[in-house]
Design goal:
The complex is a heterodimer of chains A (212) and B (456).
Chain A: H1 6-14, H2 17-29, H3 34-54, H4 60-77, E1 91-97, H5 105-116, E2 119-123, H6 130-140, E3 144-148, H7 155-169, E4 175-179, H8 185-191, E5 195-196, H9 200-210
Parallel strand pairs in A: 1-2, 1-3, 3-4, 4-5
Helix pairs in contact in A: 1-2, 1-3, 1-4, 2-4, 3-4, 4-5, 5-9, 6-7
Chain B: H1 7-16, H2 22-39, H3 54-71, E1 73-75, E2 80-82, H4 86-94, E3 99-102, E4 109-112, E5 123-126, E6 132-133, H5 135-146, E7 154-155, E8 158-159, H6 172-192, E9 199-201, H7 208-214, E10 225-226, E11 235-236, H8 238-250, E12 253-254, H9 269-287, E13 291-294, H10 307-323, E14 327-333, H11 341-356, E15 361-366, H12 378-391, H13 396-410, H14 423-426, E16 427-428, E17 433-434, H15 436-451
Parallel strand pairs in B: 1-11, 5-15, 6-8, 7-9, 9-10, 10-12, 13-14, 14-15
Antiparallel strand pairs in B: 1-2, 3-4, 16-17
The chains are: A alpha/beta (212), B alpha/beta (456).
């Protein structure tokens, strides 16, 4: 990586929002275009951070903090973008733990992994019912709905979301992926989900396949 | 019990504590743990599975108490934090029970607070700990545990379906499932000749409706263990507090658990040691637990038999044993499933670590991560009990040597999903005896472990 990016890299890895934003501005003022900074530094860096987390060389708080620095940088460099230029994301995802289920750490890990792998993710929280998930997906302009369930009796709620989404919005408006302890690939297929992720890394892989 | 008189105080603290958004509380947990790890110099210098450093353990305790006093427990229903000062925490811990009887009549068993390298045997809760199984195998699978003399108390599996229908949280189906759990569990106890054995319930009560219904006359008994989980990390809500209130009004034994996630808000090994300790203390302080339990979890493998969790569990439970008289328990969650040597080696490591580190009770093993329907059997509980009994005679040095050997046998399998076989493939469901093949695997590993110096 270009040595000019080293301070920015450090700020992102350390989760330092203020320093990350100021380093990004400094780079822009030195003639680097925002799109260039993202493609040459930030995107590969986030991928590396995601891979480090997948090996548990770093942990969730570090990954989340790095993603937050990048979000701050996105806002900070917007005024410097040229006409017609925009920072692209791979796609938009809403993620939720389904109705009746309060568990969120698994969902949070998946969200953080999707964040660092180039997706724009809206976290709807826990115990979210089908209608709210679909409404939020519409409002957000989501491409993918990601559902998490940790308990076996939560699976009917996952099925509810799949059936409701398809009934109200059509069969292929959204891609739906599911995951969590009791979810299996066989169950996911039978329930009508478009994809299944065994863990956070697989969730990224499934999302990538959806939006190829 | 004398330590369960603070219910209204806890409820009022949940209603009047400081307001905080949940993400802010999560940040408090992360930053608080990091700060205490640094302040108390919690560093894992070497890679022993069993902790040998008593001063480190005592620093983990001090860090955990201070962290809990600063951070508290979050109530999602009110967006407020339930706080207790350090002095209150220390005072309340003095009233915690140090022993309890479970069960009835000749099947009653006595759990006591244990110390590090304590020669007294912990209790074994032989059980698949919530793993689901099909209705037709529910009773034989449960009997496969109850019939083992090493098993002191048990916990029913989850129901895969109720009368052929999917179970749904917060619906009549959940209530039906909880009553069916009790009906079948009591039948299994009677058939096994241990009708007074205590069980933990209600496994099928995800929300409070199941607990409030089937924890009462005709349902879960007062001498059973009444369980619920708090939400990771250090969170509760009115559904959980409703369960607690009901249990207390029934005069039941409060048996909650907290399952920190490795690599989550608590970070790595050092942070997990502090977080697990703090969570156990919180179970007593906020939830007035009779016994406090944990099954910390790997975020990708969903087990706790890897080094990253064996080490902090040893640290944490030694901290609890050295600095309190809490009744503590750990659940073994293995990657390996029935029919595999992996499962048995994992049991060796986990049950020895837990015994030597001062646990009062050890649960499981929850085979095949507890997430593969029907992948469990009583034979691994028998094995685990035998390991546990032998481990009571070990010093930490001796335990370390055996755990190291066992770990070397399964370390390469931790990411291989060696989930083994379904109950029906390793047991005859009619005679409820293990198959010859599974018995031979058990015999082979038992001989090998005996050769390592464990008195089996």
């Amino acid at each position: 990586m270009n040595a000019e990016y080293s301070s920015l890299e450090t700020a992102i890895r350390e989760g330092n929002v203020d320093r990350g934003a100021s380093e990004a501005v400094a780079l822009v003022e030195r003639g680097y275009r925002p799109i260039q900074i993202f493609s040459e530094c930030i995107e590969p860096l986030l991928k590396d951070i995601g891979e480090k987390f997948s090996r548990l060389d770093i942990f969730l708080p570090e990954m989340v903090n790095s993603a937050q620095v990048v979000k701050a940088i996105q806002q900070t460099v917007k005024p410097y973008m040229g006409q017609g230029e925009e920072l692209s994301t791979k796609g938009k995802i809403v993620i939720a733990t389904v109705s009746g289920d309060q568990h969120d750490i698994g969902k949070n890990i998946v969200k953080a992994m999707l964040d660092v792998n180039g997706y724009e993710v809206k976290d709807l929280g826990v115990d979210v019912d089908a209608a709210d998930i679909v409404q939020d997906a519409k409002d957000f302009g989501a491409d993918i709905i990601a559902l998490s369930a940790l308990m076996l009796p939560s699976l009917p709620s996952v099925r509810d979301v799949i059936e409701y989404t398809k009934a109200v919005e059509g069969e292929s408006t959204y891609k739906i992926m599911v995951g969590g302890g009791p979810v299996s690939p066989e169950w996911a297929e039978e329930a009508g989900a478009d994809g299944y992720g065994d863990d956070a890394m697989e969730a990224v892989h499934v999302a990538d396949q959806f939006l190829q | 019990m004398k330590h369960t008189t603070r219910l209204m105080d806890i409820v009022q603290r949940s209603l009047n504590g400081p307001i905080k958004e949940e993400q802010e509380f999560n940040n408090d947990v992360t930053q608080g743990i990091q700060e205490k790890v640094q302040k108390y110099d919690i560093r894992i210098q070497d890679e022993h599975f069993i902790n040998f450093d008593d001063e480190l353990v005592d620093r983990v305790w001090a860090a955990a108490v201070e962290f809990l006093a600063d951070c508290g427990v979050y109530c999602q229903s009110t967006r407020r934090v339930i706080l207790h000062s350090k002095e209150e925490i220390e005072s309340i811990l003095e009233t915690a029970p140090d022993n309890v009887w479970y069960g009835e009549g000749p099947d009653a068993v006595h759990e006591v607070a244990r110390g590090v390298e304590d020669p007294r045997r912990p209790l074994l809760m032989g059980s698949p700990i919530g793993t689901a199984i099909e209705e037709e195998y529910y009773v034989p699978a449960l009997i496969s545990y109850i019939q083992e003399p090493e098993v002191d108390v048990t916990m029913a599996p989850s129901m895969d379906k109720i009368y052929g229908y999917d179970i749904r949280t917060r619906s009549p189906l959940e209530i039906m499932a909880c009553w069916r759990e009790i009906e079948l569990t009591l039948a299994a106890l009677r058939r096994s000749g241990r009708p007074g054995m205590a069980v933990t319930g209600l496994d099928n009560s995800i929300s409070d409706v199941g607990q409030l219904s089937a924890d009462g006359p005709g349902g879960l008994r007062k001498t059973d263990l009444h369980t619920f989980g708090i939400i990771s990390e250090l969170k509760t809500n009115f559904e959980v507090l409703n369960k607690l209130t009901h249990i207390l009004y029934r005069g039941g034994i409060v048996d909650p658990y907290a399952n920190p996630i490795y690599g989550g808000l608590g970070g790595g090994k050092e942070g997990q040691a502090v977080l697990i300790t703090a969570a156990m203390i919180a179970l007593n302080i906020v939830f007035m637990a009779t016994c406090v339990g944990s099954s910390p979890t790997h975020p990708f493998h969903f087990n706790n038999t890897g080094k990253e969790l064996l080490i902090p569990c040893s640290l944490s439970f030694q901290a609890l044993a050295r600095n309190s008289h809490l009744l503590t328990n750990l659940t073994a969650t293995t990657v390996g499933g029935p029919g595999t040597k992996t499962l048995l080696y994992e049991c060796v490591a986990f049950f020895i670590m837990s015994t030597v580190s001062g646990c009062s009770r050890i649960l499981g093993p929850r085979s095949a991560t507890g997430s593969i329907t029907g992948h469990f059997s009583g034979l691994e509980a028998r094995f685990a009990g035998e390991i546990m009994t032998a481990a009571c005679r070990l010093t930490r040095d001796e335990a370390e040597e055996v755990v190291r050997k066992a770990y070397a046998r399964y370390e390469g399998d931790l990411d291989k999903k060696a989930y083994g076989k379904h109950f029906k493939d390793v047991y005859d469901p009619d005679t409820i005896q293990p198959t010859g093949k599974w018995s031979r695997v058990y015999d082979e590993v038992k001989r090998e472990v005996a050769d390592w110096g464990l008195a089996l």
